[in-house]
User: Fold these one by one.
Assistant:
Number 1:
Amino acid sequence: MKLIDVRAVAFCAAMLAVFSAGISSASQLDKSSLEQWKTDYVRPGLVPFPEDNPYTVEKADLGKKLFFDPRLSGSNAISCASCHNPAFSWGDGLAKGVGHGSRQLGRRTPTIWNLAWAELLMWDGRFETLEEQALGPMAADVEMAQDMSTIVGELSAIPGYRALFNIAFPDEGITIDTIAKAIATYERTVVTGIAPFDRWVAGDETAIPEEAKRGFALFNSKANCVACHSGWNFTDDSFHDIGLNDDDPGRAAELPGVEKMRHAFKTPTLRNIDLRAPFMHDGSLTDLAAVVRHYNAGGIQRPSLSDDMKPLGLTPAEESYLVAFMETLTSPEEPVSIPLMPR
Amino acid sequence: MLRISLSLLAALGLVVSAIALAATDHTVTEKGKKFSEKKLTIQAGDSITFVNDDNITHNVYSKKVNQFDTGAQKPGASDRIVFKNKGKQKVRCAIHPKMKMTVVVE
Ligand SMILES: [Cu+2]
């Protein structure tokens, strides 16, 4: 073997640690592996913004208004927030999104939490930046069905927007580009807060229950969730087929020549996850217990199935620990205020 | 005299065009889901050979300035890409999007 995956080494070492600590006393958690694993989940201090679209308060405030403004759609009735609704953890609570003319979309609406750290966007990764992505749904017939040749004119006819754009983008005013930049800047400010799990990582032993700590240990060892849901935001930003029963080509639409990209979708964040059922790109799993049962069974065997998907042999108690762990990833959030619309 | 300066000019001309044509081929290896360079500055007309030195399939693509897409790149395979246009572009693996680098073409 030419190369050894660092994570594989860490995982093997972790497994060894678990075994040497004595699997026999399952109630006894190995403190040193827990402390070791915790270091991989420390929250970052700063939100990253790109060089060509740095943060300003004015841009973010304007972006928030645009995100909540239904006048960005062809019918003037659907906003980004109709589907990415803060009351549903920035999703819509539906198995599949519903767009212009109440038409059902092909996939579930993902959350927009923590996208400042994202590499590629959409379930199949077809967009590179939030700026590029923002224009997609406006123009899409099934989503907002906005005629993009008239959007600049429509917004320019609203004096309130003219003033706000002139402050946020003094030399540019209202253009397709500045609309996208403002929305993207606002989206990057949508960051999950401190969850009980974070307080535990920071040293507060009482922050989460014992079952959740066991779930965290399983997450990093026997259950192998960490192979994909890695780091503080619980995603490797990659694409995997986890063996769900549906014929969506996933990332293979972008990469037809790559076997492993068939049925492969972007690994979603697990932050605030218990607020976003039903789960998966097709909304096919109704709750977290069903998700863990799916992983325990190992998914549909097919050539594209990820090499990290194997039947896990978890006991019912272990399944419940994983759910208990995921429930500690939810931060208490202040309700999001809906902005007044420029007239 | 005249003959000398003419041949001198011709020789100079040759040197100048030789410099303009001397496109360099740079090598970037892919190992441990990383490119060997974070940022590479090259001259317009230069090429980069991307070599998959990993034991998993990668891909190399870019959507800006000099667009290209190698498709699936098996372990051991390599692709040579010529960068004609000047500018700054992000280059990534579409399978492992965290594997990325910047190419600056001057
Ligand atoms: Cu790759």
Number 2:
Amino acid sequence: MVIFSGEIERIPAVPAPEKIKLRTSGVNLFYGTFQALRNISIEIPAQAITAIIGPSGCGKTSFLRLFNRMNDLIHNARVEGSVELDDMPIYDQNTDVVELRKRVGMVFQKPNPFPMSVFDNVAFGPRRHGKDNRKELEEIVERSLHRAALLDEVKDKIHESALSLSGGQQQRLCIARVLAVDPEVILMDEPCSALDPVATLKIEDLMRALSENYTIVIVTHNMQQAARVSDMAAFLMMADDKTGELVEYGPTNRVFTNPKDPRTESYITGRFG
Amino acid sequence: MIRSERGHGAKATERIAFGLLALATFLVVAPVIYIVVFILVNGSGSISWEFLTQAPRHRGLEGGIFPAIVGTFYLMIGTLLFALPVGVFSAIYLTEYARRNWLTRLINLSIVNLAGVPSIVFGLFGLGLFVLAMRSGSSLLAASLTLACQALAMIITTSREALMAVPRSYREGSLALGATKWQTVLHVVLPQAMPGIITGTVLATSRAIGETAPILAVGAAFLLPSLPSSPLDQFMALPYHLYIVATQVPGMPERTMWGTALVLLVVVLSFNTMAMVVRWRFRQRRV
Amino acid sequence: MLGTDAKSILKSIKALPFRKKVLLPVRILSDSRVPIGAKLVIPGLLLYLIMPLDLIPDFIPVLGQLDDLLVIILALGLIVRLCPPQVLHELVLKLGQTSSPPAQPKNQSGGRNPRLLKRFRLGEKIMELFIFGNGVLAIVVLVGIFGLLLKEGLPIFAHTPFWRFLFGDKWYPVSSPPTFGILPFLVASLMITVGAIIIALPVGVATAAYLAEVAPKAIRESVKPLIELLAGVPSVVIGFVGLLVLTPLVRNVFHLNTGLTGLTAAIMLAFMSLPVIVSVSEDALSMVPNEYKEASYALGATRWQTIVHVLIPAAISGITAAVMLGVGRAIGETMTVLMVAGGALSVPHSLAEPMRPMTATIAAEVNNAVRGGLQYQALFAIGAALFLITFATNLIADVVLERQKRRFQT
Ligand SMILES: Nc1ncnc2c1ncn2[C@@H]1O[C@H](COP(=O)(O)OP(=O)(O)O)[C@@H](O)[C@H]1O
Ligand SMILES: [Mg+2]
């Protein structure tokens, strides 16, 4: 696979004719009595990059974690409304969370490679899912590292600790780790916020390449980044009671050049100066 | 110029007060050093190859303490064998599985109180349950189980701390890859927490094998013709041996007491020190 | 009972793949037509798993859990047996029909991908059950201890009424008829503990204040391991040194007939409860927010004034907890008091007399008591009393500590 850098602006995808991969309808999220999200309804197209933007604390992370039920880990979190993956409700009683997370991978804000070797990090997922043939694992690791554009850099360090890699490499390792599980959706929570500009560009290129095959949802507070990489953009903002609401959602071009909501405009222009 | 008279007086008071505080600290520390040095000095003279490798003769008046050393060693293994898995799995339950509900609160309460139960009461428990009800007699097995119960609270507490020190992000990373909870615990959390768990366990075990009251109640032996050959055999142990030679046998030469005390102290403190060094080294590394 | 019909059902169960065999009891339990008896097997099973007394005790690794595993399998079988044949037949047929992933026979229009449906992971479930069993073991042990103490100890009250046991001042366990009054031991425990705390409280808190606020880093770093070391020295060793060193000292200084007195024991216990008092008090002192201190300095107070008027009052609940824990340690300590307190059986009138606290009484007599005899029962009753006392002190300490933590953590 070729990694493009500096790809030309893509024609924004319109959700209607495309397949909807993820859908929320009327979602409310509570932490205890505090409501973090209110009445969020959104349809996220397949094989495209959707950016979630908004001021910090507006609930972007909470929103993203809806899709792989990561919020289940928080003891007082409660979800109302429905979230669907391929039209299947994922907050159903019968949903297998482990299966869901195999199909919906996640990259975290701070790179979090396990304190093991590069190889073991990438092989972690496949091993847990029952692959233990060394040959097969080696293939998967190599392929995943390659697709994460990391193979050349770590070829000689594959059995060294992942913690010895640079921040940008660690984050791409985390992406490779997700790719090794072969998910359909990749959720990314401000994947570049801890990285320098060069590493950031590398990850952005990688996302573009990956969006051919994967549905990518990325949280970012960097407007330029959202404009550069995403096909769709959703703007979340806190209401007066600090609860996050979806203010605007549409093709990135349209949201950035011709926002319908004045709040979106002031946020974007405020950021752009 | 700025200092007033009153300020001067306050300063003087402060100096005296701090002197008293330092004195108090000295009062705490000096006896510790005194005990250790005292035993080292007095005991080292009685340590001989014979003392360490021979069984006691003539009601312990002659010979060595070898069976007691071996017994204490066995007790340590036994205690570790029982307390480590139970303690670690309890800690895993509390940190990884338990929800915040009344049951969890009850367990926490139990641990706090278990840690405060007097050692002689553990001894009664061991006597009533393991020695008599389970019919394992005054055996290594019964004593190990009793000491394990006593070490349990501390092992759970320290293991829980070690598990909680593993960053959340590792757990989330693993779960997000579709690993199950147990897989996450086994492959990500436990390896990270292992040094802390081992340190705490060694510390708890070394405390437990220094205990006399529980094995006294369970029925340690003072003199045995042979070493225990199975967990159901009777046993000798260093702390109990020291208690007997120091208080129960008239005409006991002092050097036997000192030697026994020294060996016991060295055994227990070397484990303590080992645990502390391991903990310190891993703390350094984590920074 | 087993008709031909049942046999054919069993045959078709045997034909099921392993995963479905395991699933069968689950299906049976979720079926409303199944009698309550079959459903009660599950709580019964859980009860067995957490019970301390089972075939092979859970304390024994691997083997101890083997019987639990066996019981799980037996219980699954029992559930299948208790299910009415028609229902069983139907469920087996249903299980046999569905295709390899155990998809529910629900009609989902959008459900193209059955992979999201809940899977039954046997290993995971067993592990969960096992971990849960270990998790509740602390409760089981604690309740087990108290239960056993009561079971073995309560019968003594048939011989000696409760109040006479508690306030009787004569303890003649082996004369005939025997008399069991534990007042001498209660008083001894009380005196020694109070004495110990009177000594340990000022010294411990002063040390904690010194370490937390005054001591240079080098001193702090070298004193703390020493105090930790003290906590690790076996009590019999401390008792031994006390016997040789402190006993003659006390006799000579106070001109007593013997150095084996409550006072000697109190001094030893003060020393032994210092590690917990110092460390918990120091934690409490360092938990006080810096703003308190700064506010005090800003008003021109010296460090000493700040310690006395700001820090110690702010940390008072933590210090209280430290003292409670010290009390618990002192009441429960056995070997030193057995060795140095003198062991007299009459009610002591002053600390300078020989005496025998509760713990020492148990330790001194437990090996002579005949199982189930009156003396044995009386010793267990003393154990129960000790348990209750230490339970109360620890509980208070825990509650107070929690309060202190909550106060400064928000
Ligand atoms: N575990 C939690 N418990 C309680 N409140 C939380 C928790 N996580 C996040 N919040 C609150 O929810 C809101 C949204 O948080 P988050 O989703 O992290 O926002 P963002 O990612 O946009 O910065 C914030 O007000 C935050 O304080
Ligand atoms: Mg965030």
